[in-house]
Amino acid sequence: MQVCIDATDLQARALTLKLAHGEIQTPIFMPVGTQGCIKALDSYDVSTHLRAPIILANTYHMYLRCGIQKLKTFGGIHKFANFGGNYLSDSGGFQAFSLGSNVKLLENGVEFKSHIDGSKHIFTPQKVLDIQYALNSDIMMVLDDLVGLPAPKERIIESIKRTSLWAKQSLTYHLHQKSLGNAKTNHLFAIVQGGTDIQLRKESALSLTDMQDFDGYAIGGLAVGESAQEMYETIESTIPYLPQNKPRYLMGVGTPQNILESIERGVDMFDCVMPTRNARNATLFTNFGKIHIKNTRFGLDSAPLDPECNCYTCQNYSRAYLHHLYKSGEMSYYRLASIHNLHFYLTLVRESREAILGKNFHTYKAKKLEAMQRGC
Description:
3-stranded antiparallel β-sheet; 9-stranded parallel β-sheet; alpha/beta; 44% helix
């Protein structure tokens, strides 16, 4: 992976990442395509209406729904889903965490029961990478041990030890594959754990960066029960221990405010289901705060969702029409609402990049947050 630092503004950064399926300019938000697609959208929407250079696919779900052999048959997720941009695939660690009672932690991985048919499976660091090689992911995540917060310190210590062990095994396996001439365009990211304990975050980060050969680093295990302020303090205390010349990815976060605050602290990459999930549940983001489109007051409102937005939805449809679609249970609502919310997030990070290049990110962030808090 080629990484160019285009500009910095205090801790905020603008990078260009060169990957096999195109360049990514950061800060970047990655729409979540859990099962190889973003819910309610197709590859045309993603490429044309959103111009998203990278989306996220989920290793756990793609493994259970498609299987390794089918993905290999189609030459990976890009051809299978007809999306020419980049893919980042997570490791399935979050699904292991969220499945709760269906999961058993082993020294060599995670044993779980399929939520589809109850069948038993084991994810090891090596198997998770084999699935991601079959996906042909441009960026792959190592298997990690995620802990919900609050948690006992002993459990968090266990988590960072296991995460470091699995990261080392993943890296060794990946470097071996590369020595065989495989995995030439698949890049591997490690995941920092440690809860909100600053010292444990430092230990986790140093353990992983000492391995040196990772292509990037994620900050995991946040937005899982702690307060927003605790999250920001944890990010701020972790960033100094991550390399300047490699991308930093905050996993599963979050609100527009979370993203702006994290960019200011030095984070480059984000993903979250919030824009699409909120869209499906009638909550839409605008430059002047959130709209709950099911509210009766929008029934005769001829204005676009956001007069300042140039997305496909805002350029073609009124609040009244979207209100009608939602209340009528029309499936086209989910597409139009998802396009708008994802466009809002992608515009947020694109504008953030421009502000960093112009050395005025702090001013941009303050004005943006003030406007969003005003309400519609």
